[in-house]
Please model this.
Amino acid sequence: MSESIQQTQNARIALVTGAGSGIGRAVAQGLLQDGFTVVLAGRRPEPLNEVAQAAKAAGQHALAVVTDVRDPVSVEALFTIIKSNYGRLDLLFNNAGISSPAVPMDELPVETWLNVINTNVTGVFLCARAAFGLMRKQVPQGGRIINNGSISAHTPRPFSSPYTASKHAVLGLTKSIALDGRTFDIVCSQIDIGNALTELSARTTKGVLQADGHIATEPMMDVKYAADAVRHIAALPLSANILNMTVMATKMPFAGRG
Model:
């Protein structure tokens, strides 16, 4: 047994994709506070290393692994590291995702569509596939996968066809994993987050296009509450699940977007 496995044999092992910023970063930091050993995955090494170094300074355990979730080889390498270092995975938070410019569909480059789908759908599938395989074969068997969906998995914003389509696909994937995982004690949830304030969502506070065509600012919530919701699901025993959870800024236009 390797030193890493010996040091963490009693710890719960979590993987967070897109862990260098925004919701992913907040969730990773919350899971570290909850005692998880957290593998931090993302494309940019600097923010990942920043989170890992802060965790080390706090006496927590984190490992930064540069990963492109769109790339099967990169995802395979990530899970090889997880298996080699820890021997198991208890939690995957499938968070990495991108959006696209709000333009009419006919003005959207096909390359943009493909990039959104490859990141938000194929990336979620590749990580869930690898996690499912590890969780099915490890002893004790089982684990939890939490997919970051979106309000847009239910109701779109104007000119958001790639993002909306991708998040509807994630919803179907979540249900399929939840069904297919029953035999192996692999549990799957989806959290749909609305208007959590991050670096990327800050533009919403300056006004975004509404369904009736006008521009309006929208209420936001602290990203901490999104992270706390993920932590709540992560803390459940495998005998219980929250299949879908929506956590959102109370007054954002979701139930009746214009």
